[in-house]
């Protein structure tokens, strides 16, 4: 007598998950689309600023321009000034223009050490409103 092998009858059936995943994705897509169409997009009413209100009425003052030529001379309005005269001119300018700035234009052939010395003098008198012009 031949007995059937127990292995053939005890195999587990395989479940194909791909069609089930397709159905779940279609249902999920349907619910996402329905939920997006049923929600109302609400905007918040916020008064936005206009450009005409943000314009500053204060006109910037003209900067005080100090020059240095190749010889290391300090020039203001094409006049050679000494260190004390320069300090007096800067103090009087800054008293008249509290928001004014002092700009140093030095010749590019000038030694850096001389430029730094004049910048130090200007900083001592003018504080943080001193800058170096570059090209």
Could you explain the architecture of this structure?
With 135 residues, this protein is α/β, with parallel strands linked by helices. The chain has a domain of 69 residues: Nucleotidyltransferase, domain 5 (2-Layer Sandwich), CATH 3.30.420.270. Helices cover 40% and strands 14% of the residues. Strands 3-2-1-4-5 form a 5-stranded mixed sheet, with helices on one face. The longest helix has 21 residues.
List keywords for this structure.
135 residues; five-stranded mixed beta sheet; 4 helices
Short synopsis of the structure:
The protein is α/β, with parallel strands linked by helices. Helix content is 40%, strand content 14%. The protein has a five-stranded mixed beta sheet with strand order 3-2-1-4-5, covered by helices on one side.
Q: What's the topology here?
A:
Blueprint: H1 6-9, H2 18-38, E1 64-68, E2 74-76, E3 79-81, H3 83-96, E4 102-106, H4 112-126, E5 130-132
Parallel strand pairs: 1-4, 4-5
Antiparallel strand pairs: 1-2, 2-3
Portion in helices? 40-55%
How many strands in all? 5
Mean pLDDT: 79
- Helix count, DSSP H or I runs of 4 or more residues: 4
N→C terminal distance: 108 Å
CATH topology of the domain at 64-132: Nucleotidyltransferase, domain 5
Proportion of beta-strand residues:
5-15%
Assigned CATH class of the domain at 64-132: Alpha Beta
Which strands sit side by side, in order, in the main sheet? 3-2-1-4-5
Which geometry do the CA atoms define? elongated
| H-E string | HHEEEHEHE
Radius of gyration: 41 Å
């Amino acid at each position: 007598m031949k007995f059937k092998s127990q292995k053939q009858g005890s195999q587990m059936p395989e479940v194909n998950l791909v069609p089930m995943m397709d159905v779940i994705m279609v249902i999920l897509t349907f619910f996402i689309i329905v939920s997006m169409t049923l929600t109302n997009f609400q905007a918040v009413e916020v008064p936005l600023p206009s450009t005409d209100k943000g314009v500053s009425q204060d006109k910037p003052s003209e900067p005080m321009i100090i020059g240095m030529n190749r010889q290391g001379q300090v020039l203001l309005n094409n006049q050679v000034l000494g260190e004390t005269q320069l300090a007096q001119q800067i103090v009087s300018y800054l008293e008249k223009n509290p928001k004014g700035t002092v700009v140093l234009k030095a010749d590019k052939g000038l030694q850096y050490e001389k430029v730094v010395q004049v910048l130090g003098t200007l900083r001592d008198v003018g504080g943080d409103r001193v800058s170096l012009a570059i090209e």
